[in-house]
């Protein structure tokens, strides 16, 4: 009977995963993946009807994203009768063209010119839609090809074009970035203010600004209200009064629900999978297995056989593990480690010295101008900062790091397997095709190099955090990571050159950091060494950077 809850958990997890995969397959639109014949070989996905379309929408995503993020908006327009081209910007998604802001505009203009020359689009029935960086791109495309309408969603700051776009709609979120909202107001003013009359659309001088309540910069393209505003504006621009069908958002919402079911199923299986893997790799701490305990703990145990060989049930919760660890250390007369030997203040002081000194030195020497180990936008900067900061921290805390150094092949194999699985599962939850389009060789080798560059930092972090449990240890972790981000922000504000993408992605990377800490703690509770946990940290962090940062 004791096994029934675990079996139920496994069954529910497998059922949720099956529902998620099946739902994602049903929600997947009837799209065609193509590569345009322009100079940049721009990857694109085509949605909607091939013939008898109401019009054509050419859609561009934002910085550090891909066409996948624009899928919900594209599906909504396609189900409303539009033929939609979702394009990857240079260096993003499946594009292998090195990223730069100038090259992004050049490749976008090249792709649009190809579509026009080959008859796929006509100015009279075409609208350009872009989010963030893509919003700035579509505004500038008015200089190359005037179209029926342009929709800029949370446009990035830009130099105004020579010719303002026809029938310009600007959207911004209530909680959008300050410079973005300022840019939105300036674009409306440059377009001559709000004009939404029928004659204004006929003369292609219509303009409007809408602030979408409750939305952030990154969530704008996921809001059905934004999809409807885009469709309504584009329909008026081409002279079509066809309403948006009631089913226009069914596929995007189905995909979101299916993705949530897939994630929930994975979470349900974490505990049982962790137990199985820990048994396979013999990593669960147990009485008699003193290699996972501090010096002096478990030394008097009669055997050092793995837990599964002794017939013990795996420790399934943090609370049970903590209770066992506390009792074992008390019996052995050993004080449980509560953090770094030099104290919390000493740890934070070392982190501040290392992070601020490294970023200052790299910025002053402009090292990334001639040393680019991974060729990712801001990825080279992140790799060098992580490597040098990690090496300096290892030196500053060498006594603690030396005690934590233990190379256990089984633990490292488990850490590597779990780390790779988490990154791939994260990409699958976003969108199944994302693995196929984004995990090509150009990103895989960058992932591997980033693991090597980031591992010293995570080794120092794992060693200094120690094996203590409780809120104090987690607060120390937050303080360490916070100092790294403050150093990045400090350099960005002074030089306004390095780390801009990392700061813009700070919210998402911060969420990944917290999840990374919780997962690494789970490995440590199963007996993985600090070196193995550091490998898991490096694989996860490097995978996220390699997945989202543009190629350079």
Could you explain the architecture of this structure?
The protein is α/β, with parallel strands linked by helices. The protein contains 20 helices and eight strands. An eight-stranded mixed sheet has the order 1-2-4-3-5-6-7-8, sandwiched between helices. Mean pLDDT is 80; it is low at 243-250, 284-318 and 328-338.
Q: How is the largest sheet built, in terms of strand order?
A: 1-2-4-3-5-6-7-8
Q: Write down the overall geometry.
A: globular
* CA radius of gyration: 27 Å
The secondary-structure class comes to: alpha/beta
Strand content: 5-15%
How would you state the average pLDDT, rounded?
Answer: 80
Distance between the termini: 57 Å
Largest sheet, if any? 8 strands, mixed
Give, in order, the helices and strands. Answer: HEEEHEHEHEEHHEHHHHHHHHHHHHHH
Report the strand count: 8
Tally of individual helices: 20
Poorly predicted parts: 243-250, 284-318, 328-338
Helical amount? 55-70%
How would you summarize the topology of this molecule?
Blueprint: H1 4-27, E1 32-35, E2 43-47, E3 56-60, H2 71-79, E4 83-87, H3 101-117, E5 126-131, H4 133-140, E6 149-153, E7 168-173, H5 178-190, H6 198-202, E8 207-212, H7 224-237, H8 250-281, H9 307-310, H10 318-332, H11 343-365, H12 379-396, H13 398-404, H14 409-430, H15 432-438, H16 441-465, H17 471-495, H18 500-504, H19 506-525, H20 530-548
Parallel strand pairs: 3-4, 3-5, 5-6, 6-7, 7-8
Antiparallel strand pairs: 1-2, 2-4
Helix pairs in contact: 1-8, 2-7, 2-8, 8-14, 11-12, 11-17, 12-16, 13-16, 14-15, 14-20, 16-20, 17-19, 19-20
């Amino acid at each position: 009977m004791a096994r029934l809850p675990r079996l139920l958990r496994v069954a529910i997890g497998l059922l949720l995963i099956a529902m998620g995969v099946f739902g994602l397959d049903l929600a997947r639109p009837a799209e065609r993946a193509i590569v345009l014949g322009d100079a940049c070989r721009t990857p694109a996905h085509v949605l909607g009807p091939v013939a008898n379309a109401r019009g054509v929408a050419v859609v561009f995503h934002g910085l550090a994203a891909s066409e996948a993020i624009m899928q919900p908006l594209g599906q909504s327009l396609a189900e409303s009768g539009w033929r939609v081209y979702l394009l990857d910007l240079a260096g993003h998604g499946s594009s292998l063209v090195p990223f730069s802001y100038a090259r992004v505009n050049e490749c976008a203009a090249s792709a649009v010119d190809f579509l026009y020359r080959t008859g796929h689009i006509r100015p009279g029935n075409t609208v350009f839609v872009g989010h963030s960086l893509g919003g700035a791109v579509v505004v500038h495309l008015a200089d190359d090809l005037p179209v029926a309408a342009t929709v800029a969603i949370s446009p990035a700051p830009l130099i105004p074009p020579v010719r303002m776009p026809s029938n310009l709609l600007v959207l911004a979120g209530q909680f959008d970035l300050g410079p973005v909202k300022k840019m939105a107001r300036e674009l409306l003013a440059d377009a001559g203010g709000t004009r939404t009359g029928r004659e204004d659309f006929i003369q292609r001088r219509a303009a409007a600004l809408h602030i979408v309540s409750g939305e952030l910069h990154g969530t704008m393209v996921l809001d059905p209200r934004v999809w409807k505003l885009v469709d309504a504006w584009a329909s008026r621009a081409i002279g079509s009064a066809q309403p948006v069908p009631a089913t226009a958002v069914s596929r995007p919402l189905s995909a979101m629900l299916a993705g949530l079911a897939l994630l929930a199923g994975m979470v349900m299986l974490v505990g049982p999978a962790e137990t199985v893997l820990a048994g396979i790799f013999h990593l669960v701490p147990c009485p008699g297995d003193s290699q996972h305990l501090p010096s002096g703990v478990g030394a008097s145990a009669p055997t050092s056989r793995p837990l599964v060989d002794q017939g013990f049930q795996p420790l399934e919760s943090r609370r049970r593990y903590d209770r066992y660890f506390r009792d074992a250390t008390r019996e052995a007369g050993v004080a449980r480690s509560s953090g770094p030997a030099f104290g919390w203040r000493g740890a934070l002081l070392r982190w501040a010295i290392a992070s601020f000194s490294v970023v200052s030195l790299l910025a002053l020497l402009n090292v990334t101008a001639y040393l680019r180990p991974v060729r990712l936008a801001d990825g080279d900067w992140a790799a060098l900062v992580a490597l040098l900061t990690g090496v300096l921290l290892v030196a500053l805390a060498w006594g603690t790091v030396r005690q934590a150094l233990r190379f256990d092949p089984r633990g490292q194999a488990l850490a590597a397997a779990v780390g790779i699985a988490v990154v791939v599962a994260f990409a699958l939850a976003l969108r199944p095709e994302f693995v196929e389009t984004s995990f090509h060789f150009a990103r895989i080798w960058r992932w591997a190099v980033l693991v090597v560059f980031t591992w010293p930092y995570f080794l120092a972090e794992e060693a200094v955090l120690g094996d203590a449990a409780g809120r104090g240890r987690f607060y120390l972790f937050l303080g360490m990571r916070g100092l790294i981000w403050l150093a990045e922000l400090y350099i960005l504000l002074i030089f306004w050159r390095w780390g801009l993408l990392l700061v813009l992605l700070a919210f998402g990377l911060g969420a990944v950091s917290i999840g990374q800490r919780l997962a690494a703690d789970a490995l440590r509770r199963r007996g993985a060494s600090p070196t193995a946990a550091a490998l898991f940290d490096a694989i996860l962090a490097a995978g996220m950077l390699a997945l989202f940062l543009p190629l350079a």
